Amino acid sequence: MSNKNIKNILALAKELRWQIGDDYHDNLTESIYADASKIVEDAVTKDKGKSKFRLDTKIDKIVTSKIWGFPIMLFILGVVLWLTIIGANYPSSLLAELLLDNIHPFLKNLGTSIGFPWWLNGFLFDGVYLAVAWVIAVMLPPMAIFFPLFTLLEDFGYLPRVAFNMDALFKKSGAHGKQALTMSMGFGCNAAGVVATRIIDSPRERLIAIITNNFSLCNGRWPTQILLATIFIGAVVPKTYSSFASLSAVIGIAVLGIFFMFFFSWALSKTVLKGEVSTFNLELPPYRPPVFWKTIYTSLIDRTLIVLWRAILFAAPAGAVIWLISHIYIGTESIASWTVHSLDGFGFLLGLNGVILLAYIVAIPANEIVIPTILMLTVLVTGISGGEGAGVMFELDSVTGTADILRAGGWTLLTAVNVMLFSLLHNPCSTTIYTIYKETNSMKWTLIASILPLVAGFIVCFLVAQIWRILV
User: Fold this and answer.
1) Beta strands of 46-200 (E only): which ranges?
2) H-helix or E-strand containing 238?
3) CB of 318 within 8 A of CB of 362?
4) Is 149:84 a contact under the CB 8 Å cutoff?
5) What is the pLDDT of residues 63-75, one digit of tens each?
6) What φ, ψ does residue 450 adopt, rounded to 5°?
7) How far apart are CA 77 and CA 468, in angstroms?
């Protein structure tokens, strides 16, 4: 079959999809279930004297109930995040000590002994290597804990129950109930969540799901939330309650993202994407005991290491760019320093600073490199030194070292809170933006999906900063 015939068939299929209407899939599914029910009624004989006890039915009555469904969801998310926060500190310390306190000075000395000029030594080891090392030390431990736990829940069969619980809320917001499933995919990766919207038959509701998927915290943003909550939110309460405070802050950000997803879904459905809400049938799969070690292995390989590798691929050139703009001068000021100072005024209005805004520009390719980029810019632009020269940081021991750098860069509790908010509400990464364009084939909707969360982030951070400064 020629390419021309294939294109004609696809074009006809697309045209017919619009003509059959949004209710076609619902009616088809309803008729299938009605036929299946009639076949079962005619073919199956039930012993009415005995009622078989089913554990999965009893569990579903609890986890999908109107009273207990949402508290159980928040509790499970809390347990997963608590284990991540508690478990990530020690391995992060070990990695930081190995990569930053031991290997980094060794590489610097090796470069000097080989005869590398200062600029090549700095470019390779203070730029490229440090960015990669920070990504591994800061991001690997929380990802290695969070993703396997999330995968275990997925394999157990709990995530479809989450979609069931949230179906009514999505309907009230003018979105499709299946958006609960694409939202769950977005918690892993927003690009994957955008692709997953193909399960929504209504083009209007699919567009709503695509535009609002960025409000799901993707895997690249979870470590940022966890790290900042641990450093700053946990520090404002007694040490006994620091883990609980950090945990509550991260859950609050995740829930806030869901709220914004509902809000903008409702706003879009009432304005530019008006239409009737369609329904869907969700068949809850049986509970399955996960194959524990297989699940752990596949989640580490398929999610943790792949995400880490992607972060490294983007971190290496980002580190190179940061080092270059920090050492190329316009007059008496480096490009990085000039840019940071130019953005400081706008950053102050948002409760942020120029370093943070520049870091988010540099980190557009991947959310995973935001914190390492902020750390490098803070070190290079402000000239923080660990003892062997301005502009290079030689000692970073886990969370404590990261906190010292951020506080030396002028961070306060307000800064941390607004970075957590801006991490939730900012433009999608480049991969997600490209995926949105491929799925919508529209520059208009791609721009809306990219700019809408950024505008929301500016407004929310501005309001929080002004109210904070008035009250505190």
Assistant:
1) none
2) none
3) yes
4) yes
5) 888 888 888 888 8
6) -85, -40
7) 28
Cα of first residue to Cα of last residue in the chain, in angstroms, is: 70
From the list 412, 409, 401, 314, the residue with the least C-alpha distance to 92 is 401
Q: How far apart are CA 80 and CA 150, in angstroms?
A: 8
pTM for this model (two decimals): 0.74
Q: Show the CA angle centred on residue 82, arms to residues 77 and 86, nearest 5°.
A: 155
Following DSSP, what letter does each residue of 11-41 receive, concatenated? Answer: HHHHHHHHHH-TTHHHHHHHHHHHHHHHHHH
d(CA 214, CA 429): 9
Type of residue at 384: I
- Distance separating alpha carbons of residues 261 and 179, to the nearest angstrom: 10
The token duo for 267 is 């706003």
| Three-state DSSP state, 334 | strand
Task: Check: CB of residue 178 under 8 Å from CB of residue 280.
Answer: yes
Pairing status of strand 333-334 against strand 329-330: antiparallel
Q: What is the DSSP letter of 87?
A: H
The residues that bridge with 333 in the sheet, in sequence order, are 330
- The type of residue at 38 is K
At 380-424, the pLDDT tens digits run 776 654 433 333 333 444 455 778 888 888 899 999 999 999 999
Number of other residues whose CB lies within 10 A of the CB of residue 160: 17
Find out whether 370 and 359 touch, Cβ atoms under 8 Å.
yes
- Max Cα separation, the chain? 91
**129 is written with which tokens?**
């290597």
Strands, E, within 277-413: which ranges?
Answer: 329-330, 333-334
Question: Of 265, 247, 258, nearest to 210 (Cα)?
Answer: 265
Q: How far apart are CA 430 and CA 166, in angstroms?
A: 29
Long-range CB pairs of 294-302 (<8 Å, 24+ gap) are 295/148, 295/151, 295/152, 295/155, 296/148, 296/151, 298/151, 299/147, 299/148, 299/150, 299/151, 299/152, 300/144, 300/147, 300/148
pLDDT in tens, 227-245: 899 889 988 888 888 888 8
Written as six digits, the tokens of 324 are 């270059």
**What one-letter code names the amino acid at 365?**
P
* DSSP labels, 435-458: HHHHHH--HHHHHHHHHHHHHHHH
Give the Cα separation of 405 and 420 in Å (integer): 17
- State the DSSP code for 333: E
As given in the structure block, the two tokens for residue 282 are 């969700």
CA–CA dist 205, 139 (Å, integer)? 34
CA dist 301 → 90, 144, 149, 417 (Å):
22, 10, 14, 32
Distance in angstroms (rounded) separating the CA atoms of residues 109 and 103: 10
Q: What is the DSSP letter of 104?
A: H
